[in-house]
Amino acid sequence: MSAAPSAAPTPDAPLGRTALVTGGNRGIGLAIATDLRAAGYRVVVGCRSGSAPEGLDAVPLEVQDPASIVAAFDAAEKLLGGPVEILVANAGITRDQLLLRMSDEDLDEVIATNLAGVIRCARRASRGMLRLKRGRMIFISSVVGLYGSPGQVNYAASKAGLVGVARSIARELGGRRITANVVAPGFIDTAMTADLPPERRDLYLASIPAARFGATAEVAAAVRFLASPEAGYVNGAVLPVDGGLGMGH
Q1: CA distance 161 to 141
Q2: Which of 41, 147, 155, 233 is catalytic?
Q3: Which of 145-149, 159-163, 195-199 is predicted least confidently?
Q4: CA 59, CA 69: separation in Å to the nearest integer?
């Protein structure tokens, strides 16, 4: 006996299209911020300097400092005229070192920025989203979080932790039309990869099925989808943008 046809899905109503992108003044974060702005979102960038390229509003934000996070959201909400409906938590650092040589400072700073800082941003963002009964949280992780990388135990742990954060938020707040998802970029063409020695670039390229580095615009496109009304039924997902490097993880 065939099952009765289910009712047509009802997508979420359009959001108010207000977004805060942490670490949005350069690299992948800037690409995300400018892409969302071009798509019609009102965007505020949060960064340590409190400044961003022309055309983008910015607020000072130090994600290791809980008071700075609260102040940044307060300032962003004034600029946006209401709550942040889309949080893109992109700010992150690396302090690469082999495990035996890794200092406590290298460990603590990476976890405080890449993991604890994201949780605190999500906690503050949830206040406005719960009032609105809608919202999107998008956490920028890394292929390293699930694939692993020598010399990056601290970084990999922080980025893997974002998956647990997103899935816990998805279960906790999903009934309020708040989604939490992860984008996991692989090797992306940025200033950092441009400075790699040629032999190391070749080694990385050989491991990527797509045989190329990704573009920041490709990461931004994935974020834009997860921020959109069409992604209302996507929750707790990990979306790789890595050319196939981490597939199966």
Answers
A1: 9
A2: 155
A3: 195-199
A4: 10
**Percent of the chain that is helix, strand, coil (3-state, to 5):** 45, 15, 40
Q: Give the CA angle between residues 107, 108, 113 to the nearest 5°.
A: 105
Alpha helices in the chain (DSSP H): 27-38, 66-80, 104-111, 117-132, 144-147, 153-173, 191-194, 198-206, 216-227
Domain 18-241 -> CATH class: alpha beta
Angle formed at CA 125 by CA 147 and CA 96, multiple of 5 degrees:
30
pLDDT digits (tens, 9 = 90+) for 52-103: 888 899 999 999 999 999 999 999 999 999 999 999 999 999 999 999 999 9
Residue 155 annotated in active site: yes
Q: In what order do the strands lie in the sheet with 135-140?
A: 57-60, 42-47, 18-22, 86-89, 135-140, 178-185, 238-241
Residue-level length of the chain: 249
Amino acid identity at 98: L
- Beta strand pairing status for 86-89 and 18-22? parallel
The pTM of the full predicted model, rounded to 2 decimals, is 0.92
Give the residue among 82, 62, 90 at the shortest CA–CA distance from 226. Answer: 90
First to last CA, the chain: 37
105 and 152 Cβ atoms separated by less than 8 Å: no
